Amino acid sequence: MAALERIYDFFLPSEFRDSADERRARVLLPAAVWMIVACLFFLLPLGAFQILGQRFLILGFSFAGLGLFILILLRYGHSVFAGYLVVGGLLLAANLQPVFSEGIYDTIYMLNILSIVTAGVLFGQRSVILVAMMAAAASLLLAYHTENGNILVRSADLMENRPGPYVEWFRRCSYLFMTVVLYWLGWKATNRALTASDETRSENRSLSRVLTNVLEQGQLGHWYWNIRTGEVYWSSNVAAIFGIPAAEFQGSFEAFLNLVLPEDRDHIRRALNRAFSDPASNYQVQHRIRNASNHIRWLEGRGTVRFEAGRPMDMAGVVVDITEQKRAQSALDRVYSILAEGIVIHDSSDAIVSFNESALEILELTGDQLRGKTTRDPGWSLVNVNGEPIKPDQMPSRICMRTGEPQYDITLGVQLANGTIRWLSVSAIPFSEDDSEQRGAVVSFFDITAPRNQSRELQKSEEQLRFILENQPSVVLMLDLDGNILYINNPTAGYRVEDIIGLHSSSFVPPEDRPRFQEYLRRIQVEQEPFSYDIRGYNSNGEISWFSTRIGLLEFQDQKRIILISTDVTDRVEAEQRLRTMAYTDLLTGLPNREALYSHLRRVVENANSEGPLQKDTAR
User: Poorest-confidence range of 97-111, 271-285, 352-366?
Assistant: First the structure.
């Protein structure tokens, strides 16, 4: 085979005019070589020893010479002329040799079929019809000479059992016709298959280019390892990933292993042994290298092993630089470890596979106690906000793993080793690596025991304050800054709470006193210091009562509110008015007395002093 390859390389030209020229040359070259071999080892011996007759000796020399001449033509790039010679030689052999033997009845006539097929292979489908017509015409001439006795048929005794020359010609032309039809059908099918194959190859080349671009853009390299020969093939960008020139890689597993840090090599060997021992497993490993700049880089390799009869034959896979991911993961792990919030991760089997230090501190467990623990572990003792035990399937992690729905801000209590209850706010988020129903869960929680106790104390204080307010004889109102009533503790004078909430507070003040009341509301917002005042107000019967009011400003639910504490002082005001009446009027006549006159004069003098000097008559 090596000798044949050298012969082919010698006679094939280095360049071709087109693809058709190359195809003809590659078909004719082995045909010419084997034609010479057949002549030397078959036709010439059979003719020389008179086994098949003298004509085979002539055919042997003719075709051997023709084959040699074709090789010379191919060597100098004349494949078209060489093709013509082959087709012409077959036609001559098929239609000239019968002249000296059996005429139209000679079996060598079947070389016409070979000439038709050869023409189709070398020159295309149109040449098939042309060569078939030439063969039919030549054989018609043979039939004519056979019919007229111009050809001496050696087997004359068999003539009476044979059909006439023209009938034989028609029969043999049917062979030619069938050859043409079969060739055309085969050509159509082959052309269709080749077209589909070309389209497939074109698509494959496009996909290959796209895949190569994707791999290069994603800094992915692909590799192939022939385990039997030990040869390793890298794509163009693998050497760049390893940080070495492509020419330096020697294409072997040992050459690859020498690029890996020594402390990671056993890790790679163990990963390979697992992949070699189990056809269902894949090769996946992360390892470090030191590049030309003396920097450590992290790489991840993945691959699949192909087995034959249970033995690993070869591997193919990819390699990617994961240094940045490792750095990001390291940073994330540092953040993960210093979070005040506890984090635990359950895998799809419900076992805890990862946790941070805060989780251990909050749960008061060690790493060995928490690792591998499941929600069904009898060591868990959890209660809900009502103090009722929580079953394993009711835990937030189990709910989100079962339903695929996140669980947020679930309050539950966990009993610690010392018997105390620690209250936690728990959230759980499901995850799945392959979008299957086998889910894991990431659970976060933080200690709310102190805030919860404070909340309960605050609630108790609010209940006590509400009890005090609602049993307070004074009326306590809370207003917004516009004066609308938001709260009243104890509506009096026949009012109901629902009739008061939302109304403006000035609607309960007589119109003549409302400007003064609005001034009080404005004043407290400006001065922000409590003060007292007396003012009149309506009761539910429309009657007016007097109220002594203390007004102030406070913060309630992160908003400023106005607080009014009012006490009904109607009786006191009326008593003061009666005393004033008794002091300034005569009890019998009801007329102003001397005290009333003096009081009136004092007011007049005070007004005069404020407006100008008092004029006295000194003439007398």
Answer: 97-111
Point out which residues pair with 315 in neighbouring strands: 225, 305
Q: Where are the alpha helices (DSSP H) in 76-147?
A: 79-96, 111-123, 125-147
Between 338 and 62, the higher pLDDT residue: 62
What's the structural domain count of the chain? 4
What is the residue range of 274's domain? 218-326
SS3 389: strand
Same domain, 86 and 156: yes
Q: Where residue 172 falls among pLDDT bands split at 50, 70, 90?
A: confident
Higher pLDDT among residues 117 and 606, named by residue: 117
pLDDT tens readout for residues 513-538: 999 999 999 999 998 888 988 888 88
For residue 275 the two structure tokens come to 């992949």
Decide if pLDDT at 93 tops 60.
yes
CB-side neighbour CA atoms (13 Å) of 192: 5
Cβ-based neighbour number of residue 503 at 10 Å: 13
- Say whether both 246 and 272 belong to one domain: yes
**CB neighbours (10 Å) of residue 308?**
9
The SS3 assignment for 475 reads strand
**End of a domain among 191, 208, 240?**
191
Helix (H) or strand (E) holding 544: strand 544-556
Nearest to 352 by CA among 379, 328, 387: 379
SS3 296: strand
The b-or-e profile of 221-247 (16+ CB within 10 A means b, else e) is bbbebebeeeebebbebbbbbbbbeee
- Are 497 and 488 in contact by the 8 Å Cβ rule? The answer is yes
Q: What value does the CA radius of gyration of the chain take, rounded to a whole number of Å?
A: 57
Q: How many residues does the chain have?
A: 620
In the numeric block, which tokens belong to residue 399?
């709910």
DSSP β-bridge partners for residue 519:
none
DSSP-assigned letter for residue 423:
E
What is the crossing angle of helices 125-147 and 79-96, to 10°? 20
CA distances from 599 to 129, 585, 612 (A): 148, 12, 20
Q: Residue 16's Cα: distance from chain center in Å? A: 49
Q: What are phi and psi of 429, to 5 degrees?
A: -125, 130
User: Which of 316, 297, 294, 295 lies closest to 305, judged by CA?
Assistant: 316
Beta bridge partners of 431: 440
> For the sheet containing 311-321, what is the strand order?
231-234, 220-226, 311-321, 296-308, 283-290
Asked if residue 358 and residue 321 are part of one domain, the reply reads no
CA–CA gap between residue 230 and residue 484 (Å, rounded): 90
| 323-361: burial string, b at 16+ Cβ within 10 Å, e else | beebeeeeeeeeebeeeeebbbbbbbebebeebbebbbe
314 and 381 share a domain? Answer: no
- Strand 220-226 relative to strand 231-234, pairing: antiparallel
Paired with 537 in beta bridges are 545
Residues 446 and 482 both lie in one domain: no
350 and 320 together in one domain: no
| DSSP label at residue 616 | -
Separation CA 289–CA 474 (nearest Å): 83
Least confident of 27-31, 257-261, 272-276: 27-31
**Are 171 and 43 in the same domain?**
yes
pLDDT of residue 568: 79
Residue 589 is predicted with a pLDDT of 61
